[in-house]
Structure prediction request, 272 residues.
Amino acid sequence: MKYKLIVADFDGTITDSRLSISKRLKKAVNDFQKEGGFFTIATGRMTSSILPYAKELNVSNDLISFQGAMISDYKTGEIFKKTTIDSSLAFEISKFLESFGWYYHTYLLDEYLIEQQTEYTKEYNLFTKCHSKEIKNKVSSYIKANNLSPLKFMVIAPSSENFFIYNEILSEFSDFVLVNTSSPKFVEVISKQVNKGIAVDYIAKKLNIERDEIICIGDSGNDISMIKYAGLGVAVANASNEAKEVANFIAPSCYDDGVSYIIEKFGLEKNI
Prediction:
């Protein structure tokens, strides 16, 4: 077996907006793991949000969430690695976001904080099945009062504003955090000490698997680190141009079961 570990992003890579997992993918994952391979998901979602899909696919135990800020055993709940944003820095970031009037989420373990509910909140909760906590006050004040160290921030705004928001946050905090995108509407902020590539490396070392034995599959900016890290870095056909530019191989789109194709072709070494 040439490739022993396959890691795929979820939204826009494994699934499209319908969030359905194909029978073909379930079979491919099952067959690959039966042959001794490991398959898991690396997502920007909260652990609780990706959990039902990880169970449905019966992925290997180690699950990457919050863009690599957390690695956990989704079957037992044990957290292997958790990297948060220091409370004082989190306070400064939240104050900065509030100064622009942007709508944003502050992610803790099983919930995210918001100042007040908006249509963005309703849409996001419906899509991700996440739990929000409405502070009804400035989240920055709540962070400071409770000495909170969040795993992630995320600004949600019209896609036309994404580039401006990204650059404003980056120019202010680039020495301390990683700023990237997972959707045209999302700008996400995590600790600079982590990303999906670092998380995949952690799992690989734990399993005694070399980089050239790893496939990573993604579609957006927050997948670039793991696409570049892997022995075979793959972008699906619907991926952003920046993800495609660093990939070794372009797979069929998420609408055409691209992850299944990669597992079958390179994991199971089928002649397809």
Remarks:
- The longest helix spans residues 87-100.
- The radius of gyration is 18 Å.
- Residues 69 and 83 are 5 Å apart (CA to CA).
- The longest strand covers residues 177-183.
